[in-house]
Specification:
Elements lengths: L1 H5 L2 E2 L2 E2 H24 L8 H24 L2
Antiparallel strand pairs: 1-2
Length: about 70
């Protein structure tokens, strides 16, 4: 069932592709926020852990869907 969700087509491409792109973008944004805070840019610190948690949830979801394709 999860593999059907992973390969659900959106604009002709599988959902797992878009989820991977969003996950990578989220991890990059989290790293950039941390770097900007480290360099002294005035960004609320609460934003960094929020992005980190969101990135982890997206990563776990993406990984689970990817593994489900091979464990049918």
């Amino acid at each position: 069932m999860l593999s059907e969700i992973a390969y659900y087509p959106i604009l002709g491409k599988p959902l797992i592709l878009y989820l991977g792109i969003i996950t990578l973008s989220s991890f990059i944004a989290t790293a950039l926020i941390g770097l900007m805070i480290f360099r002294g840019v005035k960004i609320p610190f609460k934003l960094h852990p929020t992005f980190a948690i969101m990135s982890l949830i997206l990563g776990i979801t993406h990984g689970t869907l990817a593994i489900s394709v091979y464990l049918q």
